[in-house]
Design a protein that fits this description.
Length: about 290
């Protein structure tokens, strides 16, 4: 019961905190309507993701009532109170969306198109880069940046879809225009056109990492061999029984090391065939000048 009451208290405090945000109609830190819209979208997504919190408390409450019937009155009261608070929060959030944005759909639509277009231009510039890393460390850093870009693209994909909905809503209300919809179509086409270069850059970075990793592994193997070569090529055969036995023991140890290391060498040799293919593709797609590039 105490755990249930504590969970109810924590959710109640969280709802009260979010209600203050939902009631704030200014978003003073946002510079334009589009920025305000994005902040509000993120806020609504946060509410939706935390709906599971309320659902879990309701589930726990029902289980508690079944286990301890004497708590039914208190549990029902707490659940009802939380439900009312949650409904008020959702209602206030929807009202805020209507007050802030519904009356300015056309302006929001135009700003959203401009913001997306600017971002896509920046993305295009990043994808034009022919720097795929000079070593394993740098290419791994670039792959992390690539992952961030791809995550941003997923977010922007939702914005593109939202633009389609806004365009339909404006048309139904008679507030749409061919010029505005033309901007949306242009942004959508620009977005779709960058998906292939985005994937190609990831493929090139992955190929670059494979090559650098292979080169590092080969260097490690060369070092491993060089460290053991003096013992393997030594002409010292011992001057007495004790030294001969010691050399025999060292030789046996070396043979075991070589035998145990053989799978590693085999792996390098197998990968060398694969890396040769990567090098050929890399040479054709990356290293050779692209005469078709503007």
């Amino acid at each position: 019961l105490q755990k249930f009451l504590q969970d109810c208290q924590e959710l109640s405090l969280w709802i009260n905190e979010k209600m203050l945000t939902a009631q704030d109609m200014t978003y003073d830190e946002a510079r334009n309507l589009h920025s305000k819209w994005l902040k509000h979208q993120a806020f609504m997504a946060e509410l939706q993701s935390n709906k599971e919190w309320l659902d879990k408390i309701e589930k726990d409450g029902k289980a508690l009532m079944a286990e301890k019937p004497e708590t039914e009155a208190m549990v029902k009261e707490k659940l009802a109170s939380l439900k009312v608070m949650w409904d008020d929060l959702e209602s206030t959030t929807q009202t805020k969306a209507k007050c802030l944005f519904d009356a300015n759909k056309a302006e929001l639509f135009t700003q959203s198109c401009a913001d997306l277009d600017k971002w896509l231009t920046g993305l295009d510039g990043q994808l034009q880069s022919d720097d795929f890393g000079k070593d394993l460390t740098s290419v791994n850093i670039m792959l992390k940046k690539q992952q961030m870009l791809e995550s941003q693209v997923e977010v922007r994909q939702k914005e593109v879809e939202e633009l389609q909905k806004q365009s339909q809503a404006l048309s139904q209300e008679g507030k749409g225009s061919d010029e505005a919809d033309g901007k949306r179509i242009s942004v959508e086409n620009k977005f779709q056109a960058l998906l292939a270069p985005l994937k190609m850059r990831r493929d090139n970075l992955m190929a670059s990492r494979e090559i650098h990793q292979f080169n590092r592994d080969v260097e490690d193997e060369i070092l491993w061999v060089e460290e053991r070569l003096p013992l393997a090529t030594s002409t010292d055969h011992g001057h007495n029984l004790q030294t001969v036995q010691l050399l025999i023991k060292k030789n046996q140890t070396l043979q075991k090391e070589i035998q145990g290391h053989q799978p590693r060498i085999n792996d390098i040799m197998e990968r060398s065939q694969f890396e040769e293919g990567i090098h050929l593709v890399w040479h054709k797609t990356v290293l050779l000048p692209d005469h078709n590039r503007p």
